[in-house]
């Protein structure tokens, strides 16, 4: 069956293999591009256990593959979180940081940098503060007796995000301007420089824990876009399901931010791109958003380490790409994503 969406003719049968092909191509490009370029022969030989160049094997196994896998996981996590938030809040302008998770994780990470902690401890602090942020948001909403009201939860998230942002500013003020402040600034702009296999292994359980419920319950989650009353008539406990989705998306966002810093636009932009292929149904949207988010982040990261002598932070490139692309999507007729 072929569906018409703004600007595209897409076959439902052709979409999955095309997306898989695109993701494979993006990851291949991510492995080969960089300050030390690798040829397809070097990559294939190294993966087959017969590296033509020992230096190429070191670069591939210790630098490129961990970085490409991390970029794919982080992009998929942010895209899935964005798609989930936009569905349950029924707002196409919602991003993964709407409830302050990114800001909370950022505050934890920069506090770790200020305290001079090792990299793994900084990542763990970022993740812990991100999870604590959503706990604080839910606690405030519960205290205000607005746990069942989306607007109250979002407003509590905005308030907590403002507090976390103030905390980040205070840490930057107290940081050593010659050593700590540049590290804090670079981290807040998002980067995968220096990523290692241990970093990927540390983030993987949280990302999987966030993705599994979204994938398993994607049919029910899609019903929340119809409204709570309609969802209840179809047998869905809207309040409990929304809380579960928020927790899952929080895990995804906190894990991504703790490893790579704050990377904007992926969670906002990719779900819109995916809807051009799938339409608004969440069960179809989620897998496409996962593939697109992973592929786009891998390509942006490859560009970040290739276009200049000094690596460009991911957050800068995603903003440069995201702003114009988002305007283009609007110009193509994405005025109501539920149509």
UniProtKB/TrEMBL annotation:
The keyword S-adenosyl-L-methionine does not apply. It comes from the Bacteria. The chain crosses the membrane at residues 68-86, 98-121, 127-144, 151-174, 202-221, 241-270, 282-300, 312-331. GO terms for cellular component: plasma membrane. One of its GO terms (biological process) is siderophore-iron import into cell. CDD domains: TM_ABC_iron-siderophores_like. It is a multi-pass membrane protein. The keyword Transmembrane helix applies. Keywords: Cell membrane, Membrane, Transmembrane, Transmembrane helix, Transport. GO terms for molecular function: transmembrane transporter activity. Gene3D superfamilies: ABC transporter involved in vitamin B12 uptake, BtuC (1.10.3470.10). It is found in: Cell membrane. Belongs to the binding-protein-dependent transport system permease family. FecCD subfamily. PANTHER family: FERRIC ENTEROBACTIN TRANSPORT SYSTEM PERMEASE PROTEIN (PTHR30472), MOLYBDATE IMPORT SYSTEM PERMEASE PROTEIN MOLB (PTHR30472:SF70). This is Iron complex transport system permease protein. It comes from Rhodovulum steppense.
